[in-house]
């Protein structure tokens, strides 16, 4: 089954062709990072306008690269939640128009389910059940993937997501947007033990996360040094922050593994590209004899191929949408879109 998929939940306009949920026939991503960098973050109105301008060309490019026409695809998939509502609406309405005009089934996909499914494209042997750590700019979830369309969230952030904390801490250190990438790069030359940073906990919820206090600790450290005229070792502060985030995520994920008895671990989301997180989690899983699956770097960020991968399994489960499909800014991972 060949699925044309559309992704426009934030600041990447993407389209892809995916076969049987496992093989990428084409994948095109138009990034708006250069434009949003001048504002220090994503401006929702600008993101929506750029999606409107680019989505036709990006989709045609994906079809051309895959040597298929719209008539030859078997379904049209789209990210329908969660994300920036204006950005999502561009993709949803475009996908609805394509599916309606071509007489193809319309398959709505949850963005976080797509991130998890990116692993299916890179690792054909991976099958549920497995435990997945989803870490991105807007989400930090520990998820038990019980089946391809059945998910149980075991832990989540109570405030800032890990990616958001990376960007805010990076901004305080003087890095531009997206800060997480710059912070990770700078930290390679630093001493991760030089600065002592707190390890936040959520009382009564050992699998939940809280990154706001950690982010604030870095911001306060930077401001205090500035007020005193002291010079900070920025590479070491970046390394210390990255190491602490990796430590927290690894500790919570391994605790979830102990509680569930899961024998397979996966990593997903934009922050899954972070070098310290990948290294620390890989070492921890190796020590415990657990296989760890993570997408290649080009599948960690937002893309349409991951949406097409998950769409195949949603289609098999009968999770289709009618022409009244609407975008949703927020939606629980375990929740299903209404079938037509």
Detailed description of the structure:
With 340 residues, this protein is an alpha/beta fold. The chain has 10 helices and 10 strands. The strands form 2 sheets. A 5-stranded mixed β-sheet has the order 3-2-1-4-5, sandwiched between helices. Strands 8-7-6-9-10 form a 5-stranded mixed β-sheet, sandwiched between helices. A hairpin with a 4-residue loop joins strand 6 and strand 7 (140-147). The longest helix is centred in the last third of the chain and has 27 residues, at 234-260. It is globular, with a radius of gyration of 20 Å. The two termini are 20 Å apart. The mean pLDDT is 95.
Side-by-side strand order of the widest sheet: 3-2-1-4-5
In DSSP terms (H or I, runs of 4 or more residues), the helix count works out at 10
Proportion of strand residues: 15-25%
Q: Tell me, what's the shape? A: globular
The radius of gyration over CA amounts to 20 Å
How would you concisely characterize the structure shown here?
With 340 residues, the chain is an alpha/beta fold.
